[in-house]
Amino acid sequence: SRAAVFYDGGFNVIDATVVQDGSRFVMIVKDETELPTAKKHLRIATSAKAAGPYSAASPAFTKDWVEGPTVLKLRQEWIVYYDEYRDHRYGALKTRDWQTWEDVSSKLEMPKGIRHGTVFSVSADVAARLQLRWGQALNQKPEWYASTEAVRIADNVLRWQRKSGGWPKNTPST
């Protein structure tokens, strides 16, 4: 398709992610405003259709200097994870209504140095296998990286990678 502006809220926007919540679509965007005063926080716009048009953006629901939102629905709550890039850590807020927020950042256990991650849910069995295999992949002798197991792990990682180098957000992989 032809390139087109997807959302123009009257400010510079990057790092958008869209989720469906019932009959509406919720788009979380980073306000990339720099002048006259830097914003660098997350805001929400909604639409009846995934392709828009989207509403005017809400006021900021995060502190300033965050980016890279990703969203996970856990039971009846939505958790928005984001990169607090100036503080070199991840933050998270949860909501049921996209208006009232609770900071749950203190409950996060993230790998050191993580940046712009994607969060998705898996069963406890799959999580255990991923942790075991990923941990093993990072601590192998050089010859292991030419093995069938190493190639299988790399193929699984690259299967979902886009040509641009990123990975899709909020996409079921099964």
SSE arrangement:
Layout: E1 13-21, E2 24-31, E3 41-47, E4 67-74, E5 77-84, E6 89-95, E7 102-103, H1 124-137, H2 148-159
Antiparallel strand pairs: 1-2, 2-3, 4-5, 5-6, 6-7
Question: Could you give a short description of this structure?
Answer:
With 174 residues, the protein is an alpha+beta fold.
Walk me through this protein's architecture.
The chain is 15% helix and 28% strand. The protein is α+β, with helices and mostly antiparallel strands and 174 residues long. It has a 4-stranded antiparallel β-sheet, with no helix packed on it. Strands 1-2-3 form a 3-stranded antiparallel β-sheet, with no helix packed on it. It is globular and about 55 Å long. The model has no long low-confidence stretch (mean pLDDT 87).
Radius of gyration: 18 Å
The DSSP helix count reads: 2
Q: Strands of the biggest beta sheet: in what spatial order?
A: 4-5-6-7
Q: Which class of secondary structure composition applies to the elements?
A: alpha+beta
Q: Sketch the topology as an H/E string, one letter per element.
A: EEEEEEEHH
**Whole-number average pLDDT?**
87
Largest sheet: 4 strands, antiparallel
* DSSP, total strands: 7
Fraction in beta strands:
25-35%
Distance between the termini: 27 Å
**Helical content class:** 10-25%
Oligomer: single chain
Segments where pLDDT lies below 50 for 5+ residues?
A: none
Quick one: overall form? Answer: globular
